[in-house]
Fold:
Amino acid sequence: MRVEHIGDATLYLADCMDVLPKLGKVDAVITDPPYSSGGMMRGDRIGATSSKYQSTEHRGLYPEFGGDTRDQRAYMVWCTLWLGLALSKVTAGGILACFTDWRQLPTTTDAIQCGGWVWRGIGVWDKTEAARPQKGRFRNQSEYFVWGSSGPMIDEGPCLPGVFRYSAQSEEKHHITGKPVSLMSDMLGICGGIVLDPFMGSGSTGLAAIKTGRKFIGIERDPAYFEITVARIRAAVGQGQLFEPERAKQVQETLA
Amino acid sequence: MRVEHIGDATLYLADCMDVLPKLGKVDAVITDPPYSSGGMMRGDRIGATSSKYQSTEHRGLYPEFGGDTRDQRAYMVWCTLWLGLALSKVTAGGILACFTDWRQLPTTTDAIQCGGWVWRGIGVWDKTEAARPQKGRFRNQSEYFVWGSSGPMIDEGPCLPGVFRYSAQSEEKHHITGKPVSLMSDMLGICGGIVLDPFMGSGSTGLAAIKTGRKFIGIERDPAYFEITVARIRAAVGQGQLFEPERAKQVQETLA
DNA sequence: TGTAGGTATGAATCCGACT
DNA sequence: AAGTCGGATTCATACCTAC
Structure:
């Protein structure tokens, strides 16, 4: 295990199952785990992430990522395990937001409840331009986040939207499944204090947290993506991007 | 049972379980059943204490499934029944789109698969404003439709969006849960021919179908709502609103 | 700085060829 | 062999380049 302390960020190169038990309390868990999704056939799901999620001509743009080959029952059990661990690290009334796609959405809502969280709703990320349109079908142009709380809600802070419109291509992308930093910044309005992301990937949640004046704890088991995050967060801290004024105001409102 | 024939619409005043077995083949089922959603998952009543006293390995397995969840199981069985009946009335490759809210979304995806449909995705109706914004929460400003097909897709017709943005107050409402007619018109791009709505309510699906040149079969068991639909569809047929040019073009493309 | 037009791309999916 | 793999397909949107 390797640990990097960069400004208000603490980054672990390790599996979250190993690190989570050792952490102190956090205020929110905002994360984007591997979905283990894709395809009606088993072969479509267990293939390389590049061939599962990218067009033929674009395969190989990003490094592969692991942990994306569980079948539905195993995905359910695995999510329940890490969600239960995460719950034990959250303060009373703390928030969970966990991304998923249409195929795994029902499994994810089951898992967060089996993990002990109170399910509060579904948020929508409208990507505005879709994955591979097909004739005679509705486009699956959204991803979703299932969100909940540790026990009763505190009900402080701003009212947040339930649909977020951001192009998946609009910002620098370092991961096949990377989220726009501005999407994550908006979502962070749900919490103040310390944000935990057990599946950090290329670190967009962390970058958003640091830029909006929050503390961040991130865990990633892939060394290549870990290095990308370290570099991105170092750059943000070094350039004094600690406070986007707009976001900082939001943080203060949230904490007030 | 009462039956009204108005132009290309056939409207039944009856329970859909009674009427469905007697119908001929249709091309699509587009509907908005009662969600049975209120007060179903009161996890927050137990949340504060349950996470406090449970050890990591035994924490909160199925907290929401014990006790007051009979409603949800019954909803699941009921949906499976009518969805199975509906499947038997659809041509090969026919389409189902069934509205639901965030609470019943997972149950609905299970039910359409238990009913024998192939689940193809989730669509989003972004109502753009929330019923009740609450501090420190994401707004539940969306409803969803779960859609699928009877066996393999035909893959003809236009590519449709997966997110529809329409204000819930943008048009005249005849039903508490009424959908905008323009939303339904857009969604009907998924099919041509005969559209069936077993939970017709105030008839927005039927109105959209008639206005876009499709045939419609609707079923509603509440006499008050049935009369509203009869009046709305009579007015549309009488005023010769049979073809919105834009929609009619879309229909022809779909059928081509 | 603004507009117009061309190009790249997507947390897929399906089918056929192959081992 | 209750398989496996790779290529073709689809178009709205965002971004880039030229004027």
About this structure: Chain A has a mean pLDDT of 89.
